Amino acid sequence: MESIARTMVGRKSEQEVLSAFVTAPEGRALVLRGDAGVGKSALLDHVIELAADKHRVIRAAGVEAESELPFAGLHQFLYPLLNHLDGLDDAHRKVFDVVFGRGEDTPPSVMTLGIAVLDLLSLAASQQPLLLVLDDGQWLDTSSTEVCGFVGRRLTGSSVKLVVGLRSGVPSGFDTAALPELPVTPLPENVAEQLLDQRHPALDPRVRHLVLDEAQGNPLALLELPPHIRGDRAERSAEERLGYTGVPLPQRLQQVYGARIDSLDAGVRAELLRGALDGVGAGTAADRTRGTRYRMRDVDEAVARGLLDIDPLSGDFVFRHPLVRSTVVQSATPNERRAAHTILAQLHHDDIERRATHLAASTVDPDENVATALEAAADSATRRGGAVTAVTWLTRAAELSETREERSRRLGDAAYVAGHSGRLDHARQLVLSDTGSGTTDSPSSVVASGYVAFFEDGDVRSSQRQVFAAIESMRDSGVQEPNDVLTRLIDLLLAVNQYASDRDAWERTHQLLDSLGDLVSAHSRIYQDAWGDVVLRGAGVRERVDRAFASLGDLEPWDITRLAVAAYHVDTLSQYRPHLQRIVDREVETGALADAMTMLHLIMLDQIAVGEWDEAERTGARCLELTTTHRHTLFVMHTQAYLGQIAALRGHTDRARELQATVDTWARPRGIGFLTQITDTIGTTAALADGDYEAAYLHAIGITPPGTLTPYAHQAPHTLLDLTEAALHTGRTQQAHTHALAAHQNNLHHLSPRLALITHGALALTTPDPAQATTHYQHAQNHPAATTFPFELARIQLAHGIRQRHTHGPRTARPHLTQAAETFERLGATPWAQRARAELRATGHTTRTTTHHTPLTWQEHRIADLAARGLTNKEIGEQTHLSPRTVSSHLYRVFPKLGITSRAALRDALGRISDDENV
């Protein structure tokens, strides 16, 4: 077989780039981008030829019909490598089970799946270098595109190469994948003439001129046009010969293919149409693995006319080029397409999403059975991370509904999912289309419009009134059974109430929900008890959240988000953070954006709580960019509030107060108490950092007065230690002790691990009886979850050390003060670290900062410590919610910082750091 390089005309510079790409010693990715027919496929074939001697080649092709089916494209690359799965660990095998439809677990996040794919590719490439070739990448489904982009950016150091062909002018997830690109442009005029003369010699001059003029350097057009304008056709005008003028080149090519298609027997055209609509590709290995793809039969006539090829391995008929496939569809009549979709829907009767795709396209008149099938497919898509697709199917289901009520309900469902997808404009349009049908202010419309007003503008007051009225109306209308619309209204009211943090509104809500009885779902009851006032209603919430998360596979993304918010209020968020991290990347691009924003907030909160402050700032920056881009003003302010908290904890008080002022100015006039409580907390923490205890006390009592825990003030229990410490430092000893006793009397120590820690800490600080104080210090410092909350623990250790220095002498105080100082320094809590070091110096202990000797982040120090104890990367990852690969990357940075080259030296290096700190 003649070399492609020898038969290719022109493309010298492209060939040089591709040769360097293939011969490079390590993995990399490259995107070839150009118009349809410009020669991308030929260049991909050239890459394959260059790599064939040393690489195992796996080809894949994007299919427009599958562009909305999550992971459909990724199957093509992974299927040939399934025999390597046994070499992976259980967690990664489980990830692939979900992707291949063998498991029921929540779909993995882009990061989780991307890491698993990288490991699988690395394992396969250890035997022979891999070349992954993707043609028509613009049609790859979003989920697969994200994973391919993730993988493509991380091939350095591997034996895997990825090359992707993309059609210009068609939006694709690869547009923002930040992969190196090689533009594939039309051929220069002289090269186009050379190609035409080589492949079609002795053309009539008039035909030659016409082909060159119409092809405009497009190689496919140069090759395909001449046979169709030979002979007597060349005697006619250009308009008559080609039947069109002044249209873009791809359409001209489709017209050429259309002429061939129109000349086929009707039965052959029908076979081609069914194959095209079902995404039959161009004969790649991946096409042979699709199982239930429509197999075209008795289409030899199409092969003879150059429209189809025969796959040499499977023997199946495949389209010669994607342009043929699209031309087949465009040249068919609407009735022909609907008939083909009907047959394909029957073929895919066991595939809920693919069947729905064909049913939606095959149906014209309202049909309740089809609408119901589309609803089921939308639910399936949502659980797989395809909320955007779900909106499309729900909207189509509404169009096919037989009654106005069902149409309104389904439009409401579509608007609800669109709202959770962060597509507020789309949700608003769906609401308007619903009200335009005569269903003004239907409950479904209230749900959607409430979410728009709430998330976009932070309008809690009107949202409360509107939603409350809708729930009362449904109750008064005599609704007898729980239903989705009522549950959504209830959950929206609870979310709005949480942000408003208004006592009267909450008490009215409790009365309303009590009147609904069993119409309120078990999950909504959890939200009601956790989101409002955990002190009054939090008993047993931890156990109920645990039970709800046990059925994770049955939960929608918004259910997971809401349950995680409940877990935050009882301080058990850490154990659920892996669930959030697995889905948040997926939701950002393909699913419920509003929920992804909340998930990022929750991840950020947990990172703050467990001392991963650098990571929390990065999460906050990501969330701020996302919320700003999508104009979710409420979440923009919410994110800035959390960033203000971190700044205050670090002692960056100017930045903290700047963010505090920004959020407070926006939130207070709107009555968003949730955020104004956080701004008061920022003010308290910043004042404590500055040592301005009077200001700290005034900020703290703005949240709750001493001796009480203001109802429905979610920050009241969290600021217990702050108010107590500020009161003590300002001489308000009795108020401090009264407040600590109030926390104990309200059983805060039974509600959550964190509240137990700070309740005992507050009692230890304020109890005048030394024996009781010692007991409370021991309860706090020995609590099983104490190390989970390092900042609070270090504050208690600092207070304990100070008390020990005054009552038992410096030697007894030093261990507590040393532990506090180490923790504060690792966290980056500079003011508190300085105080702890000053107290150590007061004991006669010479200290110096460890920054010069160990510039480790808190996360790096934590991972290094676990590794020094002998834990594997996998075991460390399980404790830190990181992948083994990320753990390895952290250790890679830690070793040079500590001046070591092996894991075995970690213990001694960390010991030297500790010794230096204690000098």
From TrEMBL:
The keyword Repeat does not apply. Keywords: ATP-binding, Nucleotide-binding. Pfam families: AAA_16, GerE. CDD domains: LuxR_C_like (cd06170). PANTHER family: TESTICULAR SOLUBLE ADENYLYL CYCLASE, TRANSCRIPTIONAL ACTIVATOR DOMAIN. SUPFAM superfamilies: C-terminal effector domain of the bipartite response regulators (SSF46894), P-loop containing nucleoside triphosphate hydrolases (SSF52540). This is LuxR family transcriptional regulator. It comes from Streptomyces osmaniensis. Residues 849-914 form the HTH luxR-type domain. It comes from the Bacteria.
